[in-house]
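new request in #modeling-help
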Amino acid sequence: MTLAEVQTSAPALSAIALYQSLLRHDAPFILDVRNPDDFARWRIEGRAGLVVENVPYYDFIEDEEAATARIPAGRAVLVVCAKEGSSQYVAELLRERGIEASYLEGGILSWGNLYDRRDIVRAPWGRIIQIARPARGDVSFVIASDGAAAVIDPLRHTAPYRVAMAEAGARLTHIFDTHVHADHISGGPALSHESGAPYFVHPYDAIHPIDMLPATIAYTPLDDGQVFRIGQVELRAIWYPGHTLGQVNFLAVAPDGSRYLFTGDGIFLRSFGRPDLGGKGEAWTPLLYESMTRRLPPHLTDETVILPAHFSTLDEADAAGRVGATWGVVRRNNESLAHLASAEAFSTFVLGNLPEFPPQYVEIKRVNIGLRNPTEAEAEELELGKNVCALAQ
Amino acid sequence: MEPTYHQTLDVKGAKCPMPLVKSRKAIGELPVGHILRVIATDRGSVADFQGWVKAAKNVELVAQETTAESGQELYVHYLRRTA
């Protein structure tokens, strides 16, 4: 028995082309034709004002007229489904009705797995390359200088880092995680295994905070104040407990005096990292307060570029897709930093603004220290959707 | 316990949206009250059939089950035409 696959004349839009248009804020009307449960779990998000509508593809099969009526007239439509087939099917129906419809190539799966690479800085001393997974709001970095490279907070798939380093002509010498992540599976241990370069994390994060079990992965313990050299760049670890017990920030100082803070889930551009993902929110909030008010400030100048590991909304990315801003800008614009006047006020604010705790975050921390070894399908399921590492805005 | 059924639709290997498109057509050709058994390999069909019957005017989802055939998961749906 042969089954005809969907025939469509509708044009395909790639995930990277979609991302470029989301950054420019000129994306078409997005019609997500998955079932409502899948849509509720996660969806394409862009800058504020992006319109995404959910009309399941079977609504078009049941009553094409009524389903089509839910699409705004006179606009180009991008149809999105899980993998691709249903969006081709619906896009074809819409085109037969004279609507300018395209479909997302590879479906929302390819959007979820899109890695985007761009330069934060390209200077005579070297480069800082941002590698982001936009659908998750996850951001990581490569520092390349004089043929050496360090990776900070690498995401699960390692190929984008190998490509970036090859293109920069640099060999991996250091792999850092600012902390053991809860929202995504780290690419650190895999990169270390592939390259032989050491994988650094703070030892306090090598114990699962809820299971109270030690890591089984190979890692090199980080110290507060430890200094590394990546070519011409000096990189200093600053212990910053609060989001996790062992979180560090890395301050990079280039030979031209420019400064870059890889803050992990420390300071976000519009929020900061929540202290409850280890299950100890009340106990860790005072540590976070100390980190934010005493440990970090001596290292910050207004010109220091803050480079966090996450964004919560695409509006945190500039027109060129870079998720970073100088401390001078962040301390003025990040409204959540207005609650640092006293430890008590800070605790009240933090504990009153904790978003839901995604249950899979406990399991992801297990994976990241080697207590679990998920299959590819399980890993994909664990990483579904956008990170929830920031305090509510 | 396998529900009784009157007809079987084999959509093994068919990708979304085809299992549902073909089921819709087959249900329409069935007498009212009869049950169609749909055998699919597309995992997404499980949630999609649940959503579809909520939107559909004359289809009821009697049962769903997952079985295996030579190492491949099969998703079996039992659909009744109600009107």
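bot summary: Chain B has one domain: 7-81.
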